[in-house]
Amino acid sequence: AATSSSSSTNNGVHEVFLSFRGEDTRKTFTSHLHAAFKRFEIRTYIDYNLERGDEISGTLLRAIEDAKLSVIVFSKNFASSRWCLEEVKKIIDCKKTRGQMVLPIFYDVEPSIVRYQTGSFATAFARHEERFRDSDRPNKKIQKWRDALAEAATFSGWDCSVDRLESEIVEEIAMDVLNKLNRVYVGDLDKEIARYDQLAKHQMQYFQGSPHPLHYQNYKDSLNRIRKLQMERHQRL
Asked: Which of 86, 87, 110, 151 is catalytic?
């Protein structure tokens, strides 16, 4: 079975659903993107399960419905997975019925190939059509997949084919998602404030044990740094 995007966040609450073709990007781009989401404290539903049937699970359908935003990582072999195509179809349905935001990412594939189903996508659909040739439902099902891909590819997203470091693109995508969720990340400042707070406590203890103007000045410098960081945190919020 193909891999795409059901391990949820620990508390079962997520903001983002991440859809991807596992064999293409699970160990590369998608893992880096998911790591960036975690650094930015973006609660993400991602499925690393490898065993799949032909039909998308009810749990996964609910996960898509519950998300505020779906990120679709289109890759060269994305359309070869019926599971991935079903995810995209469900995501587009949720955009129409629930106002869900959709962010397409084009990794190692041109947006036009996804939109018009040419190249590797044309090959994949030819195989789907052959597989459903003797079925009574091929045309309708396949056409819904095609329509969903075409619509998803028209949304404003990210083209990763540009000549830039992948690490930079991943960070910018994570920030873009954070902005679309109308959230501000202050985790980095909180960590730095905690670090300086601990340092100030040690400096005060050192000053008390060995009174010296320089030791006290170091303590005051740490307090000033904490105040500046707190102000920056307040400005972000």
From this structure: 87
